From TrEMBL, chains A, B:
The keyword DNA-binding applies. Coiled coil: none annotated. It holds the Pfam family TetR_N. This is ScbR family autoregulator-binding transcription factor. Residues 8-68 form the HTH tetR-type domain. Residues 31-50 bind DNA. Keywords: DNA-binding, Transcription, Transcription regulation. It comes from Luethyella okanaganae.
């Protein structure tokens, strides 16, 4: 058991070291030597866990999915309304993209066309499906109008979020990401919510993005 | 003069060959040998024009900027309204991202974090500035409401478009991109346009994205 725990810790050290090297020099230029050095793990131990750089990249993407999936399951289990859940999910992922090196590396590896031979579409499909279900619930419970079909809303919100985090990364290293995601939702609620419910939706947005005990607080 | 023209053609062949190689294997794995072979240009001629792979990447990005800047200047010189211009600019870029190999390669190189040592933010800043000016005009001429500040709209529209093209590329190789950009605008007009002007804006959207003589026709 102690040995198993030690192996798990070594694997984690390698992934964190790899995330750091990839952040600094990019995946293409990252070498196993640098990853071994940065993570403080011998080459032998590194090869015991991973056969190649591509294996490490795949493990980072898997680990990022595990982290974000667990986080979103916790959010989805709360009793927040469907519209509120969509805001929470976006804010939570934005905050992880700022603060969690594994999530940063996983997302970067996924969007970099040079990492894998074929682009990874599954996370986008999963998120679009989750948001499609939430947008349907939001429409059914009267939070949003029927004007924009739920699947169309989901097909836009996920790519829009993807672009917002990418441009924020390019322009400010994601420093302004939570603020940009808030602006995204200020625009989205105006498209999705009926005039008579807009004040409620904007108050909800304010609560999600600034209230104490919000995701922002929980991450500190 | 003949020699100058020949040199220009050779340079163009190299860039098209490089765009093709980068599309197939990605920038990191592209070699000068492959680029020379694919473009049908000798290694000697290739080295006469470009000192390194990075030089070719920089030239592709420059050429993509020239093409899209010229296209957007032509669109901006028409007498379309500010809101219509924003739709036209998005559709035109979407169509070039489907059909023009140089534009595809340039955009891919810019968003790939592995290409250049520091991310290229200037194109995003330029587009956000252009759209900020157009969104201000749209508000001044009453096409859009004052609810969403023009700079906030621009700060969202450009990242949103960036993500829409990226996700469309990942999921369908950009086959559905013009349709997705249309959906993006169907949602945006509902956020930006007053209820009493919505029918006009949706008719405009329909004209831009489907009418004969639109950008879509002009590209064929």
């Amino acid at each position: 058991m102690v040995q198993q725990e030690r192996a798990r810790l070594t694997r984690e050290k390698i992934l964190l070291g790899a995330a750091d090297v990839i952040r600094r020099v990019g995946y293409a230029k990252a070498s196993l030597g640098q990853i071994s050095e940065t993570s403080g793990v011998t080459r032998g131990a590194l090869y015991f866990h991973f056969g190649s750089k591509l294996d490490i990249a795949a493990a980072l993407v898997d680990e990022q999915h595990r982290i974000t999936r667990e986080a979103s399951e916790m959010i989805l289990a709360t009793d927040a309304s469907a519209l509120e859940l969509m805001m929470h999910l976006c804010l939570d992922l934005a905050q992880r993209l700022v603060a969690d090196p594994i999530v940063r590396a996983g997302v970067r590896l996924t969007s970099d066309t040079s990492t894998f031979d074929s682009p990874i579409g599954d996370p986008f499909r999963d998120w679009i499906e989750t948001f499609g279900a939430l947008a349907t619930r939001a429409q059914d419970n009267g939070e949003t109008t029927a004007t924009v079909p739920p699947d169309m809303a989901a097909r836009f919100i996920i790519p829009a979020f993807t672009g917002v985090q990418l441009v924020s990364d390019t322009l400010t290293g994601r420093e302004d990401l939570p603020g940009r995601v808030r602006e995204m939702w200020e625009i989205l609620v105006r498209a999705l919510v009926a005039a008579e419910n807009l004040a409620t939706a904007l108050q909800m947005l304010d609560d999600v993005f600034t209230a104490p005990g919000s995701d922002e607080e929980a991450m500190r």
